[in-house]
Structure of Putative ABC transport system ATP-binding protein:
Amino acid sequence: MIKLEKIRKAYKADNEWIPVLKNIDLEVHKGDFLAIMGPSGSGKSTLLNLIGFVDRKYLGNYYLENEIITSKSDNDLSKLRNQRVGFVFQQFNLIETLTIRENVELPLLYDGWNYRQTKKRVDELLEKLGIGDKGNKLPKQLSGGQQQRAAIARAIINNPDFIIADEPTGALDTKTSNDIMNVFKQLNQEEGVTIILVTHDPETVQFCNRVVHMHDGKLNEKAR
Ligand SMILES: Nc1ncnc2c1ncn2[C@@H]1O[C@H](COP(=O)(O)OP(=O)(O)OP(=O)(O)O)[C@@H](O)[C@H]1O
């Protein structure tokens, strides 16, 4: 589904280019539940942003479903981002002034749905993720784990090709982290949702079916 070929990226600091991704090759297949691990500063978030069409300043080739992404315009990339990838963040990133239902329906409204069409779909998904009674609440009225469930609902509401999650359990206690990882696992196993996540936490990795390690801009896959 995703194929990265010899991806290189550098940042400029004090008139010097610092390489951050060094010839990264990676294939992600439909239904993968992939963890990216590695020390702070090794390039994990940089790689994730590139996979999620946030960044187009890199060298090498990126194929999505055999289509080359590398030379797309900003406009085309933001379309891809809206339609084909769902994002989940450490700090949930829900809009504080909108209810949970409104947060989750936003990607559908961007996609041209009307309110009447979205309600049933949003309510069903909230129910499935165990927060069916929270649709009318504001994010701050929910626990961290419940907010992350809402963020996962927002990420998958328009059936993206894959989910990208940057330290999705980083702000949660151990029990809640396990609950959230079970949500991801269920989505992966029962609905075939492809998930790519960055984590520092070895316990989180146990839920995944592949793990790759970043070290100083290079990627290694460990057999499991
Ligand atoms: N916008 C930027 N401009 C310049 N340097 C950057 C920029 N973003 C990241 N870097 C540098 O690139 C390197 C990799 O950063 P990145 O955030 O990808 O690492 P990471 O593995 O995700 O780290 P962490 O686990 O701490 O989040 C770091 O040395 C960082 O300082």
About this structure: Strands lie at 2-13, 16-28, 33-37, 59-64, 67-68, 85-89, 162-166, 194-198, 210-215, 218-222.
